[in-house]
């Protein structure tokens, strides 16, 4: 009986090991570019009357994605000032610890969009939003490239490239040329 249990254990775990190494392409370089442009248009539509928009990119991948959106927005809306703030979060701490590269007061009475590459539980975006809680804002929105819909916090994406229904054991990996040697891509593992 013990041998049967041991054999079943080895077979079942080897299946999961093979699943974790399998990568499925979600978005290729061209699709990421198209999704980014669509998100930029949505941001402009939502902030049509705003003169200033503040993009808040979450370090590291969210900030790179925010830089890309800033470039697209500046091309599309030359009459708007698009500012960019980088926020770094200590995710493993119990207390909120977020640092910005510029003073948060820059966002005072302006529309801000907090940007990350992947929205999973919502913790990272919640921490980033918390850095601006003492600043009076006109409005606050969120934008992500991939929304996994596993929200543990009441945080949802206002603008997203793709929404996926995944299981908790799966992982979404976004590769960006600026940070990775690989070409732009989003993978499900």
Write the layout of secondary structure elements.
Blueprint: H1 2-21, E1 24-27, H2 29-46, E2 52-58, H3 61-76, E3 81-89, E4 98-100, E5 111-119, H4 123-130, E6 139-147, E7 159-163, E8 172-175, E9 185-188
Parallel strand pairs: 2-3, 2-5, 5-6, 6-7
Antiparallel strand pairs: 1-9, 3-4, 8-9
Helix pairs in contact: 2-3
Description:
- This protein has 189 residues and is α/β, with parallel strands linked by helices.
- The chain has a domain at 35-166: Rossmann fold.
- The chain has 4 helices and 9 strands.
- A 6-stranded mixed beta sheet has the order 4-3-2-5-6-7, sandwiched between helices. The chain has a 3-stranded antiparallel beta sheet with strand order 1-9-8.
- Helix 4 (123-130) links the parallel strand 5 (111-119) and strand 6 (139-147).
- The two termini are 34 Å apart.
The mean pLDDT is 88
| Uncertain spans | 1-19
Helix content: 25-40%
Q: Would you count the extended β strands for me?
A: 9
N-C termini distance: 34 Å
Query: Proportion of β residues?
Result: 25-35%
Major sheet: arrangement of strands: 4-3-2-5-6-7
Shape: globular
| CATH topology grouping of the domain at 35-166 | Rossmann fold
Give the SSE string: HEHEHEEEHEEEE
| Biggest sheet details | 6 strands, mixed
